Amino acid sequence: MLGLSTNIKYLINCKNDYSENLNHRFKKMEPHPEEVYMTYSKRDGYITFGQGYPSESIFPIQKIVIKLEGIDEDITFTQNELEFSQQYITGPYEALSDLLRKFQIHYHGLSDWKLENRKWDVCVTNGAQQGIAVIFRTMLEEGDTILAEKYTFGGIFLTTLPFNINIVGIETDEYGMIPESVEKVLSNWDSSVKPFPKMFYLIPIAQNPTGAIMNQQRRNDLYQLAIKYKMIILEDDVHYFLQFPKTRESVFTNNGNFRTDNLDLESSFLSMDTEGIVLRVDTFSKILSPGIRFGFITGPKQLVDVFAVETCAMDFHNSTMTLLIMYKLLSIWKFEGFNRHIRFTHLTYMDKRDQMKKLLDKYLDGLIEYKIPQGGMYFWVKLKGVANSWEFYRKYLFPKKICFGVSGYFQSPNESFFSNYLRISFTVGTLDEIEIAFSHLSNSLKEFNQNKN
Fold this sequence. Notes:
The protein is α/β, with parallel strands linked by helices. Helix content is 36%, strand content 13%. It has three domains: 18-53 and 91-341, Type I PLP-dependent aspartate aminotransferase-like (Major domain) (Aspartate Aminotransferase, domain 2), CATH 3.40.640.10; 56-87, no CATH class; 349-452, Alpha-Beta Complex (Aspartate Aminotransferase, domain 1). The chain has a seven-stranded mixed sheet, sandwiched between helices. Strands 12-13-15-14 form a four-stranded antiparallel sheet. Strand 8, helix 8 and strand 9 (232-236) form a beta-alpha-beta unit. Its cofactor is pyridoxal 5'-phosphate. It holds the Pfam family Aminotran_1_2. It comes from Tieghemostelium lacteum (Slime mold).
């Protein structure tokens, strides 16, 4: 378990040349001389007229005050900050990047960024989705192959489909991807049919959609396989901070306030990486706000620098207002305030989970199978007697305006198989809406099974 920095020496053995990990587009790229960049960027001590910056005098937003939950201090903007938040920037917002480095040192035990000669770094993205897309777009060629869990985050297909990326789904259990299944696939791979896999795409904590949580032994086994077969691990850990405590009482101090000390968290692939093969994607979408579109990649600096170029090509830079808000929020909260908010989120989500469980049992007892999720946001529900949840959903639920996550959405487009699962989010919906939906689902399953017989 990791709750604060340890003595792990991140990338201590890493002397990697990553040129072979990049696709042909980035192998051809040559950086412009600094003098060229200077013509369209602002630098202290320089008088520049090359940039296409609008005048700050036309910016309409004159005041911003943000009230924070749980503390008395507000987020306010000075005049200079208001101008900054509405203007272009070139390069990273270094003050925020430095906070994120400290964040990774604290929560993943990385060695000090400055002492390790910048062997690792961070790159801010517009949420985890962009981070995943940036990594795929820079490291995969058209037709390449990656390994993922049998059921995985459907959003990755938005990037893989246009580039004809082959996604091979690997069997999972309650701890995630099964190493023996990986070994069987890789040891029998025929590269004359498809290119040998370059990368693992993994969701280690509260896996989406199954809810599986990797233990340390499972991570060790998969990490060793990545080393053996010279593969990169893309660690998409969107639910990392949604690892629920065993009891509600554990989130409180003796006087009833939310605890602010270190969180009890499973360690990450990033925290154990000594070979420079892990790329970690983080986001605050599930624990703060998805609308602010804020995430970041952590990994070997040689690769992170490439990702920074790609993010610039995609959207020039992140919203400067978002960057400034996140900087101020993390500066005010510090680790103690962040930990408090995570425990508040744990309690909120555990209550919602338990409320939904009661209604699942009330309406669907004997009709479904499920395990109580110990983190994340979803129930992964098996429909008894149903072979194809997609066809069942289209015929029985969608016409009644009842929508669930159908298992087909989480399956690789390269693979075709029937599945009888639904993903049901316990973080949304009122109790009345849940009762209506589960009542329809119950009646539909009974009708389906009756018609089948």
